[in-house]
Design brief:
The structure holds two protein chains of two kinds. By secondary structure, chain A is an all-beta fold. Chain A is built from no helices and eleven strands. Chain B is globular and about 35 Å long. Classes of the chains: A mainly beta, B mainly beta. At the A-B interface, strand 5 of A face strand 4, strand 5, strand 9 and strand 10 of B.
Chain lengths: ~120, ~110
């Protein structure tokens, strides 16, 4: 049974940076696309980014292009999201998920709050 | 970008009722559609993918249908544990992957 555990969330000021991590276990991480999805408080789900198995293909939602960077370390079974130039509207619970489109495993989420 | 529109936004039904939620794509997506269930305070859970394939472990009272632009999620006999918000998701023309706005299902 696969498991995903996010970490790295917290309170950050507008314009600041944060790096989220997602540790994978229970499946062969290097065989799967991985994704980040976020959910603002009381709102719906929004896909943020995804990354190919080998890390060489990445896609982002327009609102984070140029500010967020998705990456992975297959040797460490880990997925990352580097978030720079953070804005209040980036406040959300960030989930990592297994898959390119449909996501069959989700982490428990990590809360990012952007506020002064 | 392909927009996903769910209806209704919320509904209330009785235990044992048959419940249907619809999802419409702004352009054809074949059958590249998934449904997720998110119970209050919990993580989203994949229910169905490819419009009609039930994810392992999901009760058979859940079913999906449709292709192209119009899709439905049906709960054949509503149970108290089905109280949740349901989201459809397009993964055809990714990127971007897009979700519907959600349908909140409550027990009457």
């Amino acid at each position: 049974e696969g498991q995903l555990v996010e970490s790295g969330g917290g309170l950050v000021q507008p314009g600041g940076s944060l790096r989220l991590s997602c540790a994978a276990s229970g499946f062969t991480f290097r065989y799967y696309w991985m994704s980040w999805v976020r959910q603002a408080p009381g709102k719906g789900l929004e896909w943020v980014a995804n990354i190919h198995e080998d890390g060489n293909e990445k896609h982002y939602v327009d609102s984070v292009k140029g500010r967020f960077t998705i990456s992975r370390d297959n040797a460490k079974n880990s997925l990352y999201l580097q978030m720079d130039s953070l804005r209040p509207e980036d406040t959300a619970v960030y989930y990592c998920g297994r898959g390119k489109g449909r996501l069959d495993y989700w982490g428990q989420g990590t809360l990012v709050t952007v506020s002064s | 970008d392909i927009q996903m529109t769910q209806s209704p936004s919320s509904l209330s039904a009785s235990v044992g009722d048959r419940v249907t939620i619809t999802c419409r794509a702004s352009q054809g997506i074949g059958n590249d559609l998934a449904w997720y269930q998110q119970k209050p305070g919990k993580v989203p859970k994949l229910l169905l993918y490819a419009a009609s394939i039930l994810q392992s472990g999901v009760p058979s009272r859940f079913s999906g249908s449709g292709s192209g632009t119009d899709f439905t999620l049906t709960v054949s006999s509503l149970q108290p544990e089905d109280v949740a918000t349901y989201y459809c998701q397009n993964y055809n023309s990714a990127p971007p992957i897009t979700f519907g706005q959600g349908t909140r299902l409550e027990i009457k």
